[in-house]
């Protein structure tokens, strides 16, 4: 099994950390068994060997279930207002399915809360490109419009100057 993982380890560099984790687990099991560790209830039973293919089917990155899992985690992080963690989950989901409109819409929502309005607008537009009826993106675009109006009104007030504003005015 170690030889199988070692052969596959450097074929896909994106998965090399995963393979290293498997090798570490195997190493830990080896060390425990070498030191005489016996799990509870384990007698002289035959231990089932796990093949590399078993891991491969479970960890298939293109599996649509993985996108759903990332989206669910991201929505949980959004509810808890953990914006950075939500951003990581959404980026991971976009790696698997770059045309997922819900993912782009949620990404825009996270960017709004992080006050990165340019990226938020781009994400909402991308979501609407893939699904023109995406409710989160439509709502987000409305919210962005309001925020941009507030920003422009705030800039006009700040242009009037403060206590020493009259010093620089050349009217």
How does this model look, in words?
This protein has 171 residues and is mainly alpha-helical. It has 2 domains: 2-58, no CATH class; 64-159, Serine Threonine Protein Phosphatase 5, Tetratricopeptide repeat. Helix content is 70%, strand content 0%. The chain has 9 helices and no strands. The chain has helices spanning 2-9, 16-34, 52-58, 64-79, 83-96, 101-113, 117-130, 135-159, 165-168. The model has no long low-confidence stretch (mean pLDDT 78).
Distance between the termini: 81 Å
The portion of residues forming beta strands comes to under 5%
How would the global form be characterised?
elongated
Give me the CATH architecture of the largest domain, please.
Alpha Horseshoe
Report the radius of gyration as a whole number of Å: 26 Å
The top level CATH class name of the largest domain = Mainly Alpha
The helix tally amounts to 9
Task: Spell the H/E element sequence.
Answer: HHHHHHHHH
Count the E strands: 0
Q: Can you tell me the CATH topology of the largest domain?
A: Serine Threonine Protein Phosphatase 5, Tetratricopeptide repeat
Query: How many domains is the backbone divided into?
Result: 2
**Helix/strand class:** mainly alpha
Helix amount: over 70%
Q: Enumerate the spans where pLDDT stays under 50 for 5 or more consecutive residues.
A: none
Mean pLDDT: 78
Q: Biggest sheet, open or closed, and with what strands and sense?
A: none
CATH homologous superfamily caption of the largest domain: Tetratricopeptide repeat domain
